[in-house]
Amino acid sequence: MRNIFLKIKEQLAAQLPFAVYSKPGSEAITGVFQKDDAQYSPDDFKKKGFVFAPFEGEAVFIPFDAAEVVNAEIEVGGFKKLQPKSFDINKEAKADFEALVAKSVAAINTGQFKKLVTSRTEAVEFDDADVTLIYEKLLYTYPAAFRYCFYSPQSGLWMGATPEQLLKVENNTVHTVALAGTQLFTEEQETVWETKEQEEQQFVTDYILKELREHAADIVTTEPYTFRAGNIVHIKTDISAELKMDSSIKDVISTLHPTPAVCGLPKADAKAFLIHNEGYDRGFYSGYLGELNADAATGHHKTDLFVNLRCMKIEGNIANLYIGCGITKDSNPEKEFFETVNKSMTMRKVL
């Protein structure tokens, strides 16, 4: 594992692309270190490599055959339970976000949208100059998430611990999830979901099922269940299907991304509304990332992609956190703001 961390520092110094990641529940860590400074594209999505795609725009791609792939085990040890430092709420940011939520609720109430997913960014100064230490904390703190560190000159340096799978494809079987609704996790009491949260999750499930039918058959879903991701919980539905002979992975990705869990419904109109009203560029937040057409550790033909949530972009000693929440007709602007604060704790803990 230390060899991988050393390679991270070398790649950053040379400004060469890399992806380092560990899959949910795994004790293995993989590093994909590009050997040259060329800019690659996934093109028709039939190449083998690691893809890092934005909310809107062209994806960054590291082909496995243009990289050194290093696999290791996460070392035993880790960190003590981390708690974020106390911080003051930025009143201007709170007011701006609540105004955005109120505008979104008003748009939903006109019948234009069923749901919108508003987001914001928050800059946090941190002390650790060593980014590998921050990533190591991510590895130990969120074992159930897809924990990654990615750099390219086009994207900059990103880290995250995302709980949401976009797509998994193996032997023509497609696996995806519908994930929505958010509450703080507490040991003391069982999670009870309000109607607003259940409706929000059902919107996501219905959309995915509708869109998948064009490219897949024999669709099977689980009942919605509570899923824990760090200090918060969501409602989750697992979905599987068989890819049709005349459909491709690119077709399914284009259909699913961006999902209603990060954008809204109807998707195209919601996306345009958010780009116009959020007041900042999401960049690679709420995009997707992961292995395309091959498992780097085993070489098996497999696609394993995740939605880029609970993430941050690091610039010097500033971490720009990206956080959002689903808005429906019943949303309360102040409550939604504090939902984003709760979600920000995922990254604040490791800073």
TrEMBL record:
The organism's place on the tree of life at top rank: Bacteria
Gene3D superfamilies: Anthranilate synthase
Keywords: Isomerase
Molecular function GO terms recorded: isochorismate synthase activity
Coiled-coil features, chain-numbered ranges: none
Major enzyme class: isomerase
EC numbers, comma separated: 5.4.4.2
Catalysis performed (reactions): chorismate = isochorismate
Alphabetized InterPro entries for the sequence: ADC_synthase, Chorismate_C, IsoChor_synthase
All copies of domain Chorismate-utilising enzyme C-terminal, residue ranges: 94-343
Family per record: Belongs to the isochorismate synthase family.
Protein name according to UniProt: isochorismate synthase
